[in-house]
Amino acid sequence: MKTPLIPLFIFLVLLMVQCQPKEKFSPLSVDQLASAYESSKEGAVAERRFKYSDVIALVKGRNKGVFEVEAIGKSVEGRDIYQMTWGNGPTKVMLWSQMHGNESTATMALFDLFNFIEGSNDGYDELREFLKNELTIRFIPMLNPDGMNRWIRRNALDIDLNRDALRLASPEAVILKNARDSFSPEFGFNLHDQSTFYTVGDTEKPATISVLAPAYNYETEVNEVRQRAMQVIVGMNEMLQQVKPGHVGKYDDAFEPRAFGDNIQKWGTSTILIESGGYPNDPEKQEIRKLNFMAMLHSFQLIANGSYTKYKLEDYYGIPDNSFKLMDVIIRNLNLTKGVYQYRADIGIRKKETDLAGDYFATGSIDDMGDLSIFHGYQEIDAFEMEIVQGEIYDQEFDSTEDLDQEEAFELLRNGYLAIKVKEGKALHRLPLLVLKNQNRIPNMVSVGNVPNFFLAKNGNLKYALVNGYLIDLDKPEKVAFKQRLM
Ligand SMILES: [Zn+2]
Fold first, then answer.
1. In terms of domains, do 22 and 153 share one?
2. 39 CA to centre of ligand 1 in angstroms
3. How far is the CA of 194 from the centre of ligand 1 (A)?
4. How far, in Å, from the CA of 258 to the mean position of ligand 1?
5. Looking at residue 285, which CATH number applies to its domain?
6. Is the domain of 378 the same as that of 233?
7. Domain carrying residue 54
8. Contact 236/303 with Cβ under 8 angstroms?
């Protein structure tokens, strides 16, 4: 009598496995996520400083057969803020981007995600079908269109929306609060950009992505809501580590009673903060945009198939904290003279962007000097065997900046010229040297707060040029995107 029971048992086990729909889909591999990004990338946006009017069609003009698109209110200056909804599954997920106007990396990735969602016959139909049946996803891209157009953090009332979650003085804050309350999502993604000067713990690696399950009280306790956010983060981190090992940090988890992330967590939505930081040679954050896309799509899968529940909180706490230890350039052991004093100091340079003529320029000034051994640089050199050489102004005046290209400019640098003079010129240029029109001297103050411009020579040979915060290796100059102003 025992023998027929064994096949019956096997049959029952198989039936149980079959009946667990949440296990039926295994998440995409890292390569598949990356290739989904490549085929979905929104070509209309290639740089991070875009205006509302440049991109609003990417929201408003969405395929109505796929997304439900709805204007849910207006910014202070009357710009429409939209929400887009996709899917009809039982688990609700809400994502909002750019509540800080000058933090656009995740918005770019959302445009890519929208393309992905609208795609078909590309090998991802099964995934889309699965996500659509398990999740209802609501997107609110560009929550602060007025700040975005000015490329500032705050809105047109000069209020930081992320400190307005309780007082709700700004219409944009009211819109986000209402959207959360009416939809009551189980999961929320709060999408921001952070400073490019964060490292992952004490390592030299930039915190390219930082994550946080924001605290809902000063004691930073963990309830079920926050725990779920932490688990999704561990799953997201596991994937990101395969793409950019060591480049994920944890954002400061001090409770901020006025912030949206902290309150939305408190109101019962498991909230995941994603902060886009810096990555070497990625000034327009396109590499980071890709990581955002991959992280969001991966998280949707973990939430939809329930597999995030397997992750352990200790692995959340194991993600290293952000540390503010990066500079754009560090020149170590520079030989300096002040009066009778001869001394060695490291100098650390951080660049700052300034808006001009519908674009911007970057200026690097000395942020700190002395013993900078605890800091790291996106670019670093040891000047121990080098000496500072002052740059010259090229004696022949050019008509305009159009008269020479980057190659010719590098050649001038190799010959000791750090600046040229022009008769006419646009406010901005992309040459790797100083372009003077209104002034006759090269500013060079090696002191904190000032802009250093000089050469470094070894045994009499010029090795490096420091131009307005850009460090240029004269033996192998890189054609980076110089963004400078006419001086
Ligand atoms: Zn922000």
1. yes
2. 28
3. 7
4. 13
5. 3.40.630.10
6. no
7. 11-323
8. no
Asked if 304 and 335 sit in the same domain, the reply is: no
| Ligand 1 centroid from CA 277, angstroms | 11
Same domain? For 309 and 331 the reply is: no
Q: Which of 307, 323, 339 is the endpoint of a domain? A: 323
Going from the Cα of 163 to the center of ligand 1, the distance in angstroms, rounded, reads 11
**Rama region for 117: left / alpha / beta (φ>0; ψ in -120 to 50; rest):** alpha
Same domain, 289 and 335: no
Ligand 1 mean position, distance from CA 104 (Å): 9
Contacts 24+ apart (CB under 8 A), 311-317: 311/230, 311/231, 311/232, 311/234, 311/235, 311/238, 312/234, 313/222, 313/227, 313/230, 313/231, 313/234, 315/234, 315/237, 316/213, 316/230, 316/231, 316/233, 316/234, 316/250
Domain end residue (candidates: 297, 323, 349): 323
Residue 5 belongs to a domain: no
Question: What is the Cα–Cα distance from 210 to 275, expressed in whole angstroms?
Answer: 5
> How does pLDDT run along the chain (487 residues), one tens digit per residue?
455 566 666 665 555 555 454 456 789 999 999 999 999 999 999 999 999 999 999 999 898 899 999 999 999 999 999 999 999 999 999 999 999 999 999 999 999 999 999 999 999 999 999 999 999 999 999 999 999 999 999 999 999 999 999 999 999 999 999 999 999 999 999 999 999 999 999 999 999 999 999 999 999 999 999 999 999 999 999 999 999 999 999 999 999 999 999 999 999 999 999 999 999 999 999 999 999 999 999 999 999 999 999 999 999 999 999 999 999 999 999 999 999 999 999 999 999 999 998 889 999 999 999 999 999 999 999 999 999 999 999 999 999 888 899 999 999 999 999 999 999 888 899 999 999 998 889 988 899 999 999 999 999 999 999 999 999 999 988 877 788 999 9
Calculate how far, in angstroms, residue 116's C-alpha sits from the geometric centre of ligand 1: 25
Q: Are residues 266 and 404 in the same domain?
A: no
Shared-domain flag, residues 269 and 331: no
DSSP symbol at 401: G
Statement to judge: residues 59 and 33 lie in one domain: yes
- Give the residue carrying structure tokens 């980076």: 480
Residue 273 CA, ligand 1 centroid: distance in Å: 10
